[in-house]
Write a structure and sequence with these properties.
- The complex is a heterodimer of chains A (374) and B (203).
- With 374 residues, chain A is of the alpha+beta class.
- Helices cover 54% and strands 7% of the residues of chain A.
- Chain B has nine helices and seven strands, in the order ββαββααβααβαβααα.
- In chain B, strands 3-4-2-6-7 form a five-stranded mixed beta sheet. In chain B, strands 1-5 form a two-stranded parallel ribbon.
- The N and C termini of chain B lie far apart (49 Å).
- Classes of the chains: A alpha+beta (374), B alpha/beta (203).
- At the A-B interface, helix 4, helix 6, helix 18 and helix 19 of A face helix 1, helix 2, helix 4, helix 5 and helix 6 of B.
Chain lengths: 374, 203
């Protein structure tokens, strides 16, 4: 555990602002004047309890009273539920907690995962990259299945974590946490979602892992991941055929039929497919057929389908044992094994499980019991 | 209606609450000892329990109305300034936990933050919380220690302690930790001994 340094500039400025001398501070905190001088001169830092009291006295948060740590913070990305305002504090805390599991993962620490060379948002690059990646995923087939994506995630050293965060209770549909220190990617997939976006989210996160840091800013990287995930799931020749079929429809009421049938076949959201078809129409100088009209259609269409969790579990809610079994068998998750070993080695209690997996105490208790018994 | 802070209070973390609340219902209305003490939970614990129980567990009762009402009535009534201090304290405690390589949940650190800011006792069996509590000088008792204290101060009968221990064992949810003063086994033995003595079996 490394000692942290006091943010002396901030502390001195606040003392001046509040008209507090070193003697005043010493008196209020019940410590000697000498010790306060040593803090102010950067020779010592207060013990944790006194540091907190100093912070309260000066109305400074811990992030203000101490200088930031040198180690990099987790990088969090997410797929949110519509209209939600995600609070990323918990995700950041999960990231910090997950660092403790890294040593327990079965990764070759000397080998870096494969990545994409010089990625760019140009159409040509995205189409070429999508063709290459499709080949590695499913050979010549049209429909990409979840198993193929899971296999690729493993090669990319992505830890996939299926979770049951509820359909309405949580703000995240998928959450990705990248730990710069260990260069590990953790992707939490909420199974309490409709199936149509599921493969898109896995792919999106896979692509992040393949291009991390290659773009000058986050929004360009996000744009690339979205575009490439769409291109992989909906090949351009298929999207072109769909455009032709759509343009042939005379009755506007039937306009969405080919699109929705394609969605059922590919198990990909009509929105993703419509974006692909619209883009191709645009490139040909044709008015995009779908535009924003697709969103209302999609909402009704989604009602046809159950939740992904219903496909994986015989009954809901599942037991923690079943969640772990599905995670390991269907998503190649090694995190549960790593977590079990960590808990046994350290004697950590249920709170550690809650912190790492973002679970409520009750669910964490069930996972803890399934992993280490009582 | 949340109540204001009294002189002696014990703040239960989620696990401690789950270990005690159904057998001792209405747990959070319980008062005991001199000066009088009472038990509390905090809104974050209630929110955590509310946050969908998505795995099959033994604790679905926790969302029954009577338990929800019991929890809500136990929230401390604090000023906005104190609440701000508690949020800040939670961040100090989380920072300390990270420095000590302890994965701890934000809710657990909130419970400790109430203990720290309001100078009250926290009841929890969590190892990470115990480490942070010790560093900060926050008073913390394990569930078994707390039951022993409750018994000594006339807040619970020995039969009830036996019930609590039996239910914990039935649920395979025994706080089997060696870093608290009392282990549950010792407590159980004490309870049995007293019960036997009462029944005239121990003479």
């Amino acid at each position: 555990m490394a000692d942290r340094n006091l943010n002396l500039t901030m502390i001195k400025a606040r003392m001046v602002e509040l008209g507090l001398s070193a003697s005043n501070v010493a008196k209020k905190l019940g410590v000697s004047r000498t010790i306060v001088s040593e803090w102010i001169n950067g020779k010592k830092i207060p013990r944790p309890r006194i540091l907190f009291e100093l912070g309260m006295l000066l109305d400074l948060k811990v992030s203000e009273v101490l200088l930031p740590e040198l180690s990099a913070e987790p990088i969090v990305a997410y797929r949110k539920r519509s209209n939600s305002k995600p609070d990323l504090t918990e995700a950041m805390e999960m990231g910090k907690a997950l660092e403790h599991l890294v040593d327990y993962l079965p990764f070759n620490k000397l080998q870096s995962p494969p990545g994409l060379l010089d990625p760019s948002n140009s159409n040509d690059y995205i189409e070429s990259a999508s063709e290459e990646i499709r080949k590695t995923l499913d050979g010549d087939g049209l429909v990409i299945d979840v198993e193929a994506l899971v296999k690729s995630c493993r090669e990319l050293k992505i830890v996939l974590m299926p979770v049951l965060w509820g359909e309405k209770d949580r703000k995240f549909n998928a959450l990705s946490i990248y730990l710069p220190t260990s260069r590990t990617n953790w992707v939490f997939l909420n199974l309490d979602v409709k199936p149509m976006d599921f493969k898109f989210w896995i792919l999106h996160e896979m692509i992040h892992a393949m291009v991390r840091g290659a773009f000058p800013n986050n929004s360009e990287e996000e744009q690339f991941c979205d575009a490439l995930a769409g291109a992989i799931l909906v090949p351009s020749d298929y999207a072109e055929k769909l455009l032709d079929q759509t343009l042939l429809v005379i009755n506007t009421d039937d306009m969405f039929k080919p699109l929705l049938n394609a969605s059922r076949l590919l198990i990909v959201s009509p929105i993703t497919i419509a974006h692909r078809v619209d883009a191709i129409a645009k490139s040909k100088g044709i008015t995009p057929p779908f535009g924003n009209t697709i969103f209302a259609v999609c909402e009704n269409f989604n009602k046809e389908f159950g939740l992904v969790s219903e496909e994986y579990f015989e009954s809901l809610p599942p037991s923690a044992e079943d969640l772990i079994r599905v995670g390991e068998a269907k998503f190649g998750t090694y995190a549960y094994k790593a977590l079990g070993n960590y808990l046994r080695d350290t004697g950590a209690s249920e709170g550690a499980v809650a912190a790492m997996l973002g679970l409520s105490a009750v669910d964490a208790k069930a996972v803890y019991r399934a992993l280490v018994g009582n | 209606m949340p109540s204001s802070v009294t002189e002696r209070e014990f703040y239960l973390d989620t696990n401690a609450y789950l270990r005690l609340a159904d057998v001792l219902h209405p747990l959070l209305k319980l008062t005991f000892g001199q000066p009088q003490a009472r038990l509390r939970t905090i809104p974050d614990v209630h929110d955590e329990l509310k946050r969908s129980i998505r795995l099959q567990t033994h604790f679905s009762w926790a969302m029954d109305q009577k338990f929800c009402e019991d929890r809500k009535a136990s929230f401390p009534r604090i000023s906005g300034a104190t609440k701000k201090q508690i949020v800040s304290a939670r961040d100090y405690l989380l920072d300390e936990a990270h420095r000590n390589a302890l994965p701890v949940s934000s809710t657990d650190m909130f419970v400790l933050a109430y203990g720290l800011v309001l100078s009250q006792v926290v009841v929890s069996d969590d190892r990470g919380m115990k480490t942070v509590a010790d560093i900060y000088g926050i008073k913390m008792l394990g569930v078994a220690d707390f039951l022993a204290l409750l018994y000594n101060e006339g807040g619970i009968t020995i039969e009830k302690i036996k019930d609590v221990v039996d239910v914990m064992e039935l649920r395979h949810d025994v706080p089997n930790r060696d870093y608290f003063y009392f282990t549950l086994g010792e407590l159980y033995k004490m309870a049995e001994m007293k019960a036997n003595a009462k029944n005239g079996l121990d003479r």
